[in-house]
């Protein structure tokens, strides 16, 4: 199953990747997330919107707050997609390691 292009677009931005890292710790209110960044609140809201539309975060209203949680499913799809490339590079690096072990310095 191919990965949705929106997921790759969302992950392309370092601020959005950092938001995902914050949400690894557990659900956070938008204000709590904003405190960790040196950016205006509307900019962070835009990043959260992109992550939500890509399916990487879930937004829940709790009173006046919006609380965000990590949705890891799309990240699993990215991991599955990257798996053949990881095996490829492991094989290449393993070959290099064997070659270097055979060399005399």
Characteristic terms for this protein:
3 strands, three-stranded antiparallel sheet, 105 residues, single chain, alpha+beta, 13% strand
Polypeptide structure, described:
- This protein has 105 residues and is an alpha+beta fold.
- 62% of the residues lie in helices and 13% in strands.
- It has five helices and three strands.
- It has helices spanning 5-11, 14-23, 30-34, 41-53, 73-102, and strands spanning 28-29, 57-62, 65-70.
- It has a three-stranded antiparallel beta sheet with strand order 1-3-2.
- It is elongated, with a radius of gyration of 19 Å.
- The termini are far apart.
Task: Tell me briefly what this model is.
The chain has 105 residues and is an alpha+beta fold. The protein has five helices and three strands; from the N terminus they run H-H-E-H-H-E-E-H.
Could you say which structural class the secondary elements and strand pairing correspond to?
alpha+beta
Strand order in the sheet with the most strands? 1-3-2
Distance between the termini: 47 Å
Low-confidence stretches: none
Mean pLDDT: 89
Molecular shape: elongated
Residues in helix, %: 55-70%
Strand content: 5-15%
**SSE arrangement, N to C:** HHEHHEEH
Biggest sheet architecture: 3 strands, antiparallel
Number of helices: 5
The total beta strand count reads 3
Nearest-angstrom radius of gyration? 19 Å
């Amino acid at each position: 199953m191919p990965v949705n292009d929106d997921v790759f677009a969302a992950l392309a931005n370092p601020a959005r990747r950092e938001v995902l890292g914050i949400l690894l710790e557990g659900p956070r209110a938008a204000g709590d997330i904003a405190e960790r960044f040196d950016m205006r609140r509307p900019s962070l809201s835009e990043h959260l919107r992109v992550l939500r539309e890509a399916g990487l975060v879930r937004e829940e209203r709790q009173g006046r707050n919006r609380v965000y949680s990590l949705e890891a499913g799309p990240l699993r799809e990215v991991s599955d997609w990257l798996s053949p490339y990881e095996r490829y590079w492991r094989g290449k690096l393993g070959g290099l390691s064997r070659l270097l072990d055979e060399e005399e310095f």
